[in-house]
Amino acid sequence: MIIKDAMLETVCGITSRLPENIYLEIAFCGKSNVGKSSLINALLNRKSLARTSSSPGKTQTINFYKAVCLIKMSTDTQGNTALRDEKKTSYKDGRITSPETSADLKKRDMSLYFVDLPGYGYADVSVEAKKQWGRMIENYLNLSRNLKCIFLLVDIRHKPSENDKLMYEWILKRGFEPVIIATKLDKIKRSVLERHIRIIKQELNTNSDIIAFSATDKRGRQEIFGIIDRLLYT
Ligand code: GDP
């Protein structure tokens, strides 16, 4: 999958109606300052489409970024097209051999939305603002018909906070299995990586794989795209 174009299409505040999108949505959530905007920019190949800041607690909105992607489709003998199944395709010397030949592959544009949910855990906001945050997220998780996957971001340097744990459980209760991304990978030494990942798994009580990501050197980007690709096939 190649990102061809990206734009901020809709910004929703507490009183806004959610857009009636026809394309699938992938949501990103995590505490403020965890690196959500930086991750979205890195995935979309943009420097500052999503706002990044070193001061947490920005305006609480749900932002819909539309990404136009180039994907590969395969054509069967009847001329029907389907998304190419990477798992069934064999490669030799970097070329596709079976069951599809490279001639069967057609490239096609496909759109999807990256949904940036407001960050939580910022201490300096009123109780009312925190309630509004909860209502916004709950509304989105309950009403979005095209939400396919939620990425939950945690900082790789720290134990997940109580809010991270609550968020994780909240997402599970709503029927989604969040994909955990541990951000700011470049800020820890390679020698402690395994330990930090183990602590995150323990605290969130999960056996799922965790993707370690750095917005600085882009490690983990391909793994995230791998997950998004697989979502497009199902
Ligand atoms: P958000 O509030 O979750 O959207 O977080 P931002 O993307 O605005 O990032 C908060 C701060 O962390 C900014 O100063 C970013 O430059 C920094 N940051 C985010 N991701 C990384 C990363 O992977 N590595 C490093 N070194 N800094 C990061």
Automatic annotation (TrEMBL):
- Needs which cofactor? Mg(2+)
* An MF annotation (GO) of this entry: metal ion binding
Q: Which CDD domains match?
A: YihA_EngB (cd01876)
Q: Which UniProt keywords apply?
A: Cell cycle, Cell division, GTP-binding, Magnesium, Metal-binding, Nucleotide-binding, Septation
Q: Which domain of life is it from?
A: Bacteria
A cellular-component GO term for this protein: cytosol
What does the record list as GO biological process? division septum assembly
Indicate the segments forming the EngB-type G domain, all copies.
22-234
* Family that this chain belongs to: Belongs to the TRAFAC class TrmE-Era-EngA-EngB-Septin-like GTPase superfamily. EngB GTPase family.
**Which HAMAP family does UniProt cross-reference here?**
GTPase_EngB
Q: What does this protein do?
A: Necessary for normal cell division and for the maintenance of normal septation.
Kindly provide the name given to this protein in its UniProt entry: Probable GTP-binding protein EngB
Q: Which organism is it from?
A: Johnsonella ignava ATCC 51276
